């Protein structure tokens, strides 16, 4: 912006929105066709099919024209009816937050909650289902981003499937950064978006919906229609022969197309690997400086976000300001219950590359040292480089 007093960041290492791939930037700048032109209708159908393929599904994806928080609320409104009993799994701010939406619509809400640096144990889910045999829906956040932790969605999904409940999955900040797909976790509704590990822009949501979930929505007399919170309105919009409920985000769809091409052409396994190597290097460097990772153990630390416990009596603002003003690097804060307790470094999309882990370690170490915390930045860089070499 002309005459803006604040310079743009040199590097964005946040947990989303993230830096986008150049091919996505190019796609977003293309001319905007009329949404009912056959040219765009064909693009929309092909992108829906391609997104389904990326999620290892034989069904076209459901695309919603909103960022994923709206899609997750829409999932609650569309799926959960007045006869449903919901088991919500709360291992962090976002998991707990879904329970507030679920409570608006369900007959009864029960929760399994753990400390926000921990993960849900599948046996806890099994115990809760034995104690509440009338549960019809279970909701899981795979990567609870404000804590940088991941839940064992596959094992939880197996427990939910055996019980016979529907499984709702928030995979917004994990899909395309690790090996997670709807079928892996018996998901009936699986929500993600392009603005995280896909390295796209943040204006869309991408969902996979099972036939069981569609039937459940169709039988839910309170499921919204003619509403931004309606999944049913968009059920068949993927087809070039069907109407859109309202004007789709044409440029964002073209950007999603490019992000999916980037992911599929590079190869999912290669993409997951560089997310994992980058995160391991960052964690190794943070620990070698004498700082602590927020997750209780490495096995539940996400490959897409490193959450670092704020040392001493420092505040989020102090670390953010030092990183941003001195080095031009933007990091993410915690959210709600994790605010002022941790800082997050994102490893998503284009910045899921080891060189960015080295930059993050150096900047984080320098930022806390600037405020009087003694850390060994050199040892952190050495440890990060060693982890990169081991992962090469």
Notes on the protein architecture:
There is one protein chain. With 392 residues, this protein is an alpha/beta fold. It folds into 2 domains: 22-265, Aspartate Aminotransferase, domain 2, CATH 3.40.640; 268-391, Aspartate Aminotransferase, domain 1 (Alpha-Beta Complex). Helices cover 41% and strands 14% of the residues. It is built from 12 helices and 14 strands. The strands form 4 sheets. It has a 7-stranded mixed beta sheet, with helices on both faces. A hairpin with a 4-residue loop joins strand 6 (143-144) and strand 7 (149-150). The radius of gyration is 21 Å and the shape is globular. The two termini are 41 Å apart.
Report the sheet-strand fraction.
5-15%
Helicity range? 40-55%
**N→C terminal distance:** 41 Å
Biggest sheet statistics:
7 strands, mixed
Taken in chain order, the helices and strands follow as EHHEHEHEHEEEHEEEHHHEHEEEHH
- What is the CATH homology-level superfamily of the largest domain? Type I PLP-dependent aspartate aminotransferase-like (Major domain)
The assigned structural class equals: alpha/beta
Alpha plus pi helix count: 12
What's the shape? globular
The CATH architecture of the largest domain can be named as 3-Layer(aba) Sandwich
What number of structural domains do the residues give? Answer: 2
**Unreliable stretches, pLDDT < 50, 5 or more residues?**
none
Rounded mean pLDDT is 97
CATH-defined topology of the largest domain = Aspartate Aminotransferase, domain 2
Spatial strand order of the main sheet? 2-10-9-8-5-3-4
CATH class placement of the largest domain: Alpha Beta
**Number of strand elements:** 14
The quaternary organization reads as single chain
């Amino acid at each position: 912006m002309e005459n803006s007093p604040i310079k743009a960041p040199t590097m964005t290492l946040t947990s989303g929105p993230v830096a986008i791939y150049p091919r996505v930037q190019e796609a977003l700048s293309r001319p905007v066709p009329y949404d009912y032109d056959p040219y765009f209708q064909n693009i929309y159908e092909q992108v829906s099919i391609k997104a389904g393929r990326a999620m290892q599904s034989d069904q076209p994806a459901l695309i919603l024209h909103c960022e994923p928080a709206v899609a997750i609320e829409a999932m609650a409104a569309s799926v959960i009816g007045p006869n449903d009993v919901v088991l919500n799994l709360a291992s962090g701010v976002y998991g707990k937050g879904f329970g507030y939406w679920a409570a608006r619509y369900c007959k009864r809400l029960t929760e399994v909650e753990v400390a926000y640096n921990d993960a849900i144990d599948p046996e806890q889910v099994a115990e809760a289902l034995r104690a509440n045999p009338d549960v019809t829906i279970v909701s899981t956040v795979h990567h609870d981003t404000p804590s940088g932790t991941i839940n064992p969605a596959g094992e939880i999904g197996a427990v939910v499937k055996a019980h016979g409940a529907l499984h709702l999955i928030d995979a917004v900040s994990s899909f395309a950064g690790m090996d997670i797909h709807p079928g892996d976790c018996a998901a009936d509704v699986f929500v993600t978006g392009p603005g995280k590990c896909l390295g796209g822009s943040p204006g869309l949501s991408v969902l996979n919906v099972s036939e069981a979930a569609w039937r459940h929505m169709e039988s839910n007399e309170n499921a919204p229609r003619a509403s931004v919170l309606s999944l049913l309105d968009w059920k068949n919009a993927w087809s070039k022969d069907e109407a859109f409920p309202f004007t789709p985000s044409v440029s964002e769809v073209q950007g999603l197309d490019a992000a999916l091409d980037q992911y599929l052409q590079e190869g999912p396994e290669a993409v997951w690997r560089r997310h994992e190597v980058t995160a391991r290097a960052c964690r190794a460097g943070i620990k070698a400086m004498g700082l602590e990772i927020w997750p209780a153990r490495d096995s539940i630390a996400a490959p897409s976000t490193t959450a670092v416990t704020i040392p001493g009596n420092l505040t989020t603002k102090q670390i953010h300001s030092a990183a941003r003003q001195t080095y031009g690097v933007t990091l993410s804060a915690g959210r709600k219950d994790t605010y002022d307790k941790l800082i997050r470094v994102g490893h998503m999309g284009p910045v899921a590359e080891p060189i960015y882990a080295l930059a993050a370690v150096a900047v984080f170490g320098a930022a806390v040292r600037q405020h009087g915390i003694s850390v060994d930045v050199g040892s952190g860089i050495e440890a990060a480089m060693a982890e990169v070499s081991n992962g090469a």
